[in-house]
Amino acid sequence: MALLEVRDLHVGIEGCEILRGLDLAVNAGEVHAIMGPNGSGKSTLSHVISGKPGYQVSAGQILFNGEDLLAMEASERATRGVFLAFQYPVEIPGATTMNFLRAALNAQRKARAQTEFSTPDFIKRVREVANSLNIPQGMLKRGLNVGFSGGEKKRNEILQMALLEPSLCILDEIDSGLDIDALRIVAGGINALRSSERAMIVISHYRRLLDYIVPDVIHVMSKGQIRKSGGKELALELEACGYAQFEDAA
Amino acid sequence: MVAVQETVERVRRIDVDQYRYGFETLIESDKAPKGLSEDTVRFISAKKNEPAWMLEWRLEAYRRWLTMTEPTWARVDYPKIDYQDIYYYAAPKPKKTLSSIDEIDPEILKTYEKLGIPLREVAILEGVEPPPGGEQTPNRKIAVDAVFDSVSVATTFQKELKAAGVIFMPISEAIREHPELVQKYLGTVVPTSDNYFATLNSAVFSDGSFVYVPPGVRCPMELSTYFRINERNTGQFERTLIIADKGSYVSYLEGCTAPQRDENQLHAAVVELVTLDDAEIKYSTVQNWYPGNSEGKGGIYNFVTKRGDCRGRNSKISWTQVETGSAITWKYPSCILRGDNSSGEFYSIAISNGFQQVDSGTKMIHLGKNTSSRIISKGIAAGKSQNTYRGLVSAHRKATGARNYTACDSLLIGDKCGAHTVPYVEAKNSSATFEHEATTSKISEDVLFYCVQRGLSEQQATGLVVNGFAKDVLQKLPMEFAVEAQKLISISLEGSVG
Ligand SMILES: Nc1ncnc2c1ncn2[C@@H]1O[C@H](COP(=O)(O)OP(=O)(O)O)[C@@H](O)[C@H]1O
Ligand SMILES: [Mg+2]
């Protein structure tokens, strides 16, 4: 059984159909890349999987570990292991990154009937991961993402992912706005979290990302559908010809 | 063994204290007849064994009140109050005695639990008393521990305060024991004629706190009504007077973060603060009176007059308030900056949810030279509530070099509530520098979803955002209060989302 299975998914927003019969199956241990031009519905897919309100699902199914994901509240999906690294992470003034992380981690652990982390253990763990991502300690004490550069915000997303240890990681345009050094750090953090129990979906419209995070499967998305799926060789095809050739492939 | 001896003594003293209530209620009836008349005022004064001057003072206020009309300028809306349909005095009856924690209303217990208040404190606050003779039951142990604790706190307080020369007692006692101080200061900050509700309070106040800090003394501890058992039933018309003599300092905490279920609808308190040369008063309030039910029925009308007078040079008064309760709040803790170089501060978090209406703010009246004031107001409106900041900053002709900084931030949760900012500024001299900033923001869907995607409930997410929003003010609260206030903020916003 696939960890995530999306079947014939049709999704609209404000009366406009964005996803038009999308199919996707991702197994634990795999890294899938979804490539597609701006506006093809990649963020929409990530939002619907993670439970953002405002979308109308008119047909189709999303199964997570065989269970109906669409029937669950967004916070329940999170506690069950669905994590979304946002394309545009929000800012929360006054709530320090440290406190936010702690609240999130404890909420998840509580929902899973696990014991909460002790303060020293938690701080130690955060410091370790923060160091590996080149996140200065001072940043953890500032309001969440407030005054962070684009790159810092993205690193902060990976920090959260590492601490929450999700089983499905969806990374929406994690490479956007990053210079090459920042991209290396972020990709390094992501690669370090690859494991046989965990699946990842990396979403991007830049092929460059695939040089740093090498996926097992590449999907090309256009106009709300997966047009083609394949191995690493698809990346080369994209490099050569761009997205245009896939638009009417389905 | 010493400890055991002490315990026994302390428990015995509680009995004595409680018995004393009996002495105070020697007059036949425990309740004044319904309604307000000169007789009501005389009744209250007699109950309190007050000297003649105090009765005169009250009567004068009462006669003045008869000539006044209720103010209507605030942005609050409520049915007309029938002042003849209110009891103005009920003996401070001890709470219904419960014999164990199990008898406390589970709803109330739940709130305590959320606030993280230890059970033994719950026992004190809810008035759990040991059953007579039932020494071996576990419940008795809780109760005795509880009582023991509060008494030990109170007695340690008293000893240390006495050594420092600080007077801290119910105002009714101060009127009898320190008439010269009370007469010198009472009504000098909020005159009996000040406003409708303050005048009413002057006529019928039942009790409150009195603090005097002698010259040069830094009060050795935060003074709080929290552990003042004898102050349980003084809520309705409370009167507080705090005097910090030259070069002294005191921090006073008002209120209690326990759930308050008062059946009195109308609350009209008066608080007067006086600082002499180089003195400082820090006054913190956490107010969480009953806000009414989810349909907007019931709840407290909180019409409060709080004012501080920086009478001396270089003196300072700082108000910090966290207002989460009451159906209607009408409250403007203010500073009269009379002394040269004096300074006033107002830090406020006002939260409204459900059908609550808040009209609150401050007045900074600059009279002396080089006076400064700072206003940080955080208004949070949720549900169908209305939240107004109303503030006045004025500089007298002679108040050269007056400075004020005001920042008013409003946060809206949902789209059925309202936040309003009404600043009044009057500078009568050209050297005054007044700065004003105001922002209004909403908790966006995106922020909520971000938090929820990390596993937080919408409730937790809202609490997190609001606490972050209010952080600058929360940090002004004394430590132990800040933690409880933070939890209180989350609790008071329950049901505001989703
Ligand atoms: N709130 C919205 N209302 C209407 N259309 C929207 C809304 N959000 C996104 N869309 C449209 O949905 C399409 C897909 O958007 P999105 O999923 O963000 O694409 P991608 O992430 O692939 O760039 C776009 O055409 C976009 O304009
Ligand atoms: Mg996108």
Automatic annotation (TrEMBL), chain A:
A molecular function (GO) term: ATP binding
Residue ranges annotated for the ABC transporter domain, each copy included: 4-248
Key word Transport present: no
Entries under SUPFAM superfamilies matching the protein: P-loop containing nucleoside triphosphate hydrolases
UniProt keyword list: ATP-binding, Nucleotide-binding
SMART domains registered for this protein in UniProt: AAA (SM00382)
A Pfam match: ABC_tran
InterPro entries: AAA+_ATPase, ABC_transporter-like_ATP-bd, ABC_transporter-like_CS, FeS-cluster_ATPase_SufC, P-loop_NTPase
Gene3D superfamilies per UniProt: P-loop containing nucleotide triphosphate hydrolases
Function noted in UniProt: Involved in beta-(1-->2)glucan export. Transmembrane domains (TMD) form a pore in the inner membrane and the ATP-binding domain (NBD) is responsible for energy generation.
Family of the protein in this entry: Belongs to the ABC transporter superfamily. Ycf16 family.
Full protein name: Fe-S cluster assembly ATP-binding protein
